[in-house]
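pinned: reference chain
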Amino acid sequence: MTRPVQESDWKSSPWFNGPGFSVYRQGRFIIVELDEAHRVLTTSSCVGGLREDIRYLVNHQSCEANEHVERYSKISGLGLEGYHRAVCQELALPFGEAAVMGTAANMIYAAHETLSFDELRVDAIVTAGVEGNASCAGDPARWIETPSGWNKLAPVAGTINTIVMVNQQLKPEAQVRALITATEGKTAALLELGISSRYSQDLATGTGTDQVCLAAPVVEGRYAYASASPHTKLGEMLGLSVRVATRRALQWQNGLEASLTRSLVHGLRRFGFSETTFIEAMRVRLSEPLIHLLEKNRNAILYEPQVAAAAYAFTAVWDRLRFGVLPASAGRDVLRQQAALVAASLSARTEAWHRFWQQLDVNMDQPLEVIYDALALGWTAKWESKD
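pinned: its structure tokens
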């Protein structure tokens, strides 16, 4: 049985103070205490919506990301209200005054970004994980809610939890717009890192379990801002602070440092490419000496910058075909051209591009196969005699 964390416990771990709020990080919790009245817009399951009676914003690591079955079963058994109540009891917080968000992300990896301009200040506090649950808006759903409850709950890992504090009063409509702008900032970070959806061939726009709290003070007589659109300075600050904090949180939680996302696995993952499928494909395409050399030096292919650039170009063209920007009748030819560039880049023999182009063909039902063909051709040509 977990001993309740008394208020004095988490208050002994201050992280930083902001205008009208204080932030604490205690073990598996981040607690934002609102020192003055705020209007809070939140997705918190039990204390959610647009409210003015919330005093605490809580981000909680409820489990580990992978196969924490016992903990997952316990939380599922509690239900949404039971989980909310358990968190509040552990922190000695009033049930109805705390907006709670749960995640598998480690609180020590939370990123904080502050931006200021004249009288405006925005603070974004983000924890993020995308390895198991990244999704794109419109992806096939795995959950369904009915009047009798959820008829399927997927034990997925990956959540982006965002707390945003604005130091100026917002009109209610501006606060809703601020939430949209902050969400767009999160999505911009995912697009910047090229995060793949785990449910489709699209790039991810978030995860299926993302949560947010966005708070702004309520002070009688104070000017209330009417807009948080990206065209305004406030909107810029909202979008940028969340974008930067999300990117940093993913760097720490998932190791998604920008230069490491150049790998073929990262760039082609949404189309079914993995290190395992890559090695298996090479085994049927390469001679024994060359496959042995490749297995001992696989990162020389998987992280080679020019090969990664060509692979990203291939996926960009593939996307344009999927979305109907390019005619389907051109698909075989344009993908063949990009695949030849993959082979030429790996071989370090760009003058051989036309030779590779002649050797490659594209099956539009399985376009990824031409990438494996191109990698095999490039690796072979790289080490064939040039005499």
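why pinned: The chain has a mean pLDDT of 90. The chain has two domains: 7-256, 261-382.
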